[in-house]
Amino acid sequence: MTPQHPATGGTAIHRRFAALPKAHLHVHLEAAMREETLRQWCAEDGAEVPPLVEFPDFTRFLDAYGLLISLLRTPERVERLLDEVVADSAAQGVVALEFASIPEKAAAFGTAGDALEFITRAAADAGRRHGVWTGAIVSIDRGAGHGHAIEAARLAARFADRGVVAVGLVADERGNPVADAAEAFAIARDAGLGVVPHAGELAGPEEVRSALDLGADRIQHGVRAIEDPRVVGLLAERGTCLDVCPSSNVILGVYPSLEEHPLPTLLDAGVRCSIGADDPLLFGVDVVDEYVLAHERMGITHTRLADVARTSVESSFAPAELKRDALAGIDAWARSVPG
Ligand code: ADE
Ligand code: ZN
C-alpha cells in the first residue's frame, strides 16, 4: 500500500530528510491514519469524512479527532492502523516512535486494559516487521476530570514494562491547568514512567513553568514559553526537550505563519527541541514534511536539524543501544549534507 504522504516518494529534499534517522515523539496514533484508510472506513460505516487541514476552532479540531477514534471499532482496524503508521514511520526515517493514544476510547475492546494490551502488542509486532522501536504514551484527557486522570495513570503504570513509556496530557489547556494532573503524574512516575504533557500551546508560558515544576520529562508543544524569557531560560538550563509541531501550531491558530513560529528562536536560546507532526492526517503533514518546512520556511540549517534529530533520539525512552546506532547514523547524515 502506498503511503499517503509525499515524504517517501517526494522531492529530493524530502528524500534527504527521510534519510535522517530521527525519533518521532509527538504524534497522536489515531490522527496518523492514512487518508485512504480513513475514506475506506468512513465509506464502510456510512460516516461522513471529517474536515481535514482547516478547522475554524479547536473544538472543531477535537470533533474531527473524535471521529477518527470512533472508526476504530474492531481489533482488525486497530491492528491495520498500527501497521500502517509504523510502516509510514519507517519510510520517514523514524527509528523510534512514541505514539500517544487514549485506550479508554478504543471502542473495539471491553476495557481500557484490553485495549492497551492489544495496542502495545500490535505496536511491538509492527515495530518488528518494519524495523522501528515503539513506545506508547497513554494520554490523559484534560477535560475528563480527576477520576479519569487517576485511572489512566494507574492503567499506564500496569504496562510500565510492557510497551508503555509515559503518560501524556491532551485536549484544551484553557481552564484545565497541568497542575490538576499532579497526582496522576506522581502515580506514573512511581511506576517508572515518563511524564510528557501538552503545555504552552493554547495557554501561555505559566503552563510550561507548571509542567517543569511537576517534573515533566519533555513538554509537548511548549512553544509559548517564548512569551517569558525566564521560562525560556529555565528550559535551556534544565535541558527539557520541547516536542514542537510547527504546522499544527499554524493550523490551530497559535501562530499566524511558519515564518512567525518561534522554533528558530527557541533553538537559538539553547532550548532542546524535537520536531513532530502531531496529527498528520488532520494537518496534512508528516514528520519529514515538518523537517523540510523547518528548513525551507523557517531557515533552520541542515546542521541544526541534525541537532534536532539528535535531541529527539536522546530525549526518547528508546533503549541505549538503539540511541547509539541512531546517533551514529545522524552523524553520518550530517557529514553528507550541506551545512
Ligand atoms: N490532541 C491531539 N492533538 C492535540 C493538540 N495539538 N493539542 C491538544 N490535544 C491534542
Ligand atoms: Zn499533540
Please count the helical segments: 15
The strands making up the biggest β-sheet line up spatially as: 1-2-3-4-5-6-7-8
- CATH top level label: Alpha Beta
**Mean model confidence by pLDDT:** 95
Bound molecules: adenine, zinc ion
Tell me the fraction of residues in β-strands, as a range. 5-15%
Q: What is the CATH-assigned architecture?
A: Alpha-Beta Barrel
Number of strands: 8
Alpha-carbon distance between the termini? Answer: 35 Å
For the largest beta-sheet, the strand count, sense and barrel status come to:
8 strands, parallel
Number of domains: 1
Can you offer a commentary on this structure?
There is one protein chain. Helices cover 49% and strands 14% of the residues. The longest helix is centred in the middle third of the chain and has 19 residues, at 112-130. The protein has helices at 12-18, 35-45, 58-70, 75-91, 112-130, 145-158, 182-190, 205-213, 229-238, 246-251, 263-268, 280-283, 287-296, 302-315, 320-336; strands at residues 22-28, 94-101, 133-141, 164-170, 194-199, 218-221, 241-244, 273-275. It has 15 helices and eight strands. Helix 5 (112-130) links the parallel strand 2 and strand 3. Strands 1-2-3-4-5-6-7-8 form an eight-stranded parallel β-sheet. With 339 residues, it is of the alpha/beta class. The two termini are 35 Å apart. It has a single domain (21-336), classed as TIM Barrel, CATH 3.20.20.140. Helix 1 (12-18) crosses helix 13 (287-296), helix 4 (75-91) packs parallel to helix 5 and helix 6 (145-158) runs parallel beside helix 7 (182-190). The radius of gyration is 18 Å and the shape is globular. The structure holds adenine (ADE) and zinc ion (ZN).
